[in-house]
Specification:
By secondary structure, this protein is of the alpha+beta class. It is built from twelve helices and 16 strands.
Amino acid sequence: MSQLKHSYGLLRISLKLVAAITLTSASWMTHAQTPASGLPMADPESVGMSAERLQRIDAFTQRYIDNEMVAGTVTLVARRGKVVHFSAQGMKDVERNQPMTTDTIFRMASMTKPIASVALMMLYEEGWFQLDDPISDWLPEFKNMMVEVEQADGSVTLEPVKTPINFTHMLTHTAGLMNSYRGDIPRYSEVSRVRGEENLASWTERLATLPLRYEPGTRWEYSAATSVVGRLVEVISGDDLDTFLRERIFEPLQMNDTHFYIPADKVNRFATLYGPDAANGNRMMLTEVGDERSNYVSGPRAFFSGAGGLVSTAHDYIRFQQMMLNGGELDGVRLLGSKTVELIFANHTGDLPLWLSGPGMGFGLGYSVVLDRAVAHTSDTEGSVSWGGAFGTLFWIDPEEELVAIILTQIRPYSHIRLREGFHNVVNQAIVD
């Protein structure tokens, strides 16, 4: 460990010499239809942003790199369909002396959820179901669910649910499923862990054997619900989730580096995952976290997690979210109608508190939604939608400002730093028109 820390110390000296690829000029618009950034480039001032103020993004993220809180970052900002900032800083892999590049592949974790949710809504548009239909119409294992009910003496009994789980419940994390982080985690983890080479069908059937923790629609609890969303895509479409996403979303949108499992010829572009070293002020532990890298390497796999299985790049992810900002269309490819996108971005959870997003926030169909920016303590406009991933990634869409922003890094846990929160500030302060 000490040798690695010494290596990192030497590398820090050269980090600022590594070119932070920041594309902020129309002179870069010599790319093909799909440039390195995924979208056309523009001079920031031409779309109402300040080139000078955008430089604060690199300064902000570089502080985290210099302080060894993260190894490196890729940041991307687009406004009015044009990229005004695209930057790679720091290291993709410190030990191997590999600089971060703009085509680095990241574990997207829960940033998979909006994509899986959109896949299901594509089938909604085809008339296969209504949002208030019971999911048991397609997944009979959820037909006779029981719910845990706490009695006055503190004991817990099981009772039949009064409200069947519907599609909206599953898309909004209000289905009653056990929480991934709070409550009876050991029992949840034992039942929900993927076993061997099982597929999403057997996993979903096992998940349905657990009683619900609350009546559907009465509470928001983050869970593996979006993997059930993925299973619904499979059953309704007749394709496995990997095939559906590839053929119906990734290939049409030219998202060529987005996969559930990384092809062998792309493994060298895969970022290393780091963890904080509590014994050293929560600075990075300069080693891979466990042996999880092998979990993403291409092979004969059958389990495709809609809740958090994808890897991707900034190029690919901006294309997906720009499509959503455009009302379901990008470069002549339409995946959704504009009214469906409006429905997805609407708040479907009423005034239920979202303990993960915090006050002032609601939840749509796969996206969190800003309801009150003052209460939420965010510079994002009301109606902005977003989500992040467990390895420190984040995106948001601000429809009013016609803006999409993405920050990608690989650190877990990340709760000891405010990189994602600060990224909102340094992006939004660059809007001048």
